[in-house]
Amino acid sequence: MALKQTEEFRREAVRIALSSGLSRTRVAADLGIGKSTLSHWISQYRSTDLTVPEASTDLVRENERLRLENRVLREEREIFKKSHAVLREPKDVRFAFIRAHRDRWPIADLCRVLQVSTRGYRAWVSRPMCERQRTDLKVLAHIREHYALSNRTYGRPRMTMELKEAGLAVGERRVGRLMKANDIRPVRTRRHKVTTDSRHSLGFADNILDRDFMADAPNRKWAGDISYIWTSEGWLYLAVVIDLFSRRVIGWAASDRMKKDIAIRALDMAMRLRNPPSGCIFHSDRGSQYCSHDFQKKLTEYRMIPSISGKGNCYDNAVVETFFKSMKAEMLWRQCWPTRRQATAAIFQYINGFYNSRRRHSYLGSISPLAFEAKAA
Hints:
Largest sheet: 5 strands, mixed
CATH topology of the largest domain: Nucleotidyltransferase, domain 5
Number of strands: 5
Number of domains: 3
Radius of gyration: 31 Å
Shape: elongated
Mean pLDDT: 81
Strand order of the largest sheet: 3-2-1-4-5
Distance between the termini: 87 Å
Helix content: 40-55%
Strand content: 5-15%
CATH class of the largest domain: Alpha Beta
Low-confidence stretches: 1-5, 191-202
Oligomer: single chain
């Protein structure tokens, strides 16, 4: 029975190869056999004069036609999903996309979906590279370098500023065109977990900050909050303190429990780094960690003025919320963290190695917090 099934399979494979109009390479790949094996079967059947029977019914011929049509439609859909971003771009951009993906799909199919001719593509390939194309390759190399340095977070505006700072005279449209044609885009994802517990009987301070996130000097206004990171060991909680003048993270602490001590440790770290004068405002949400007696006692000890967000209004602490969103989207959500220790080390590297020292902030005139503080000094 197995021999009969093998013989039937061979006959069917030969019939498809000779009647479908597809290349032997394509048929062999679809059937999961080698091209040489298929060619051997075809030669064997021809040499023994065992001709492949023609389709005896309209149903078989229609089945072959539909199979071919389905294959073409499936390929076109895959090509379109990958190339829709460049369909409205100039022909040079579409030709570059075809060259970059010619090993995955047939050139003729790529040209048909992208609405260009194969003759035009061949002429573009054989045409000597002009000065603009050589410049594009140079700019693209810089884009890839800065894209990696930014943890794959920079879009067109920040990337353009990086390139200009590196000495390249480029505009946003050119940078955007090259990034789109080469599928370079910021990586963003999202999850959610509630961390603010305002259902407590502790006292609340007034909202002194009142969404005025601007400060005319360092150590005038600070803001703090707690967020979360999922690891294979469970949740890791992170408390940070940010100076609203430069948006710099000046204190942080991580723990496997969301208790008041994590907020206090982050505040202590900020105090050791800055030692602000009396009257600095510390703003937070209505979480029990910040409304606790021990934390409020710390603020009094440090001669700071407490300020607490309104009930259920995350916009009252938007600067810290924005930091957490950036950190998660640009680093934490991109991979699974086996241990809390690994996640903590990654957070340390992100804050000190990228966010404070390199990441461009539009609020600061597209420079980093450290550069902004140095400029202000």
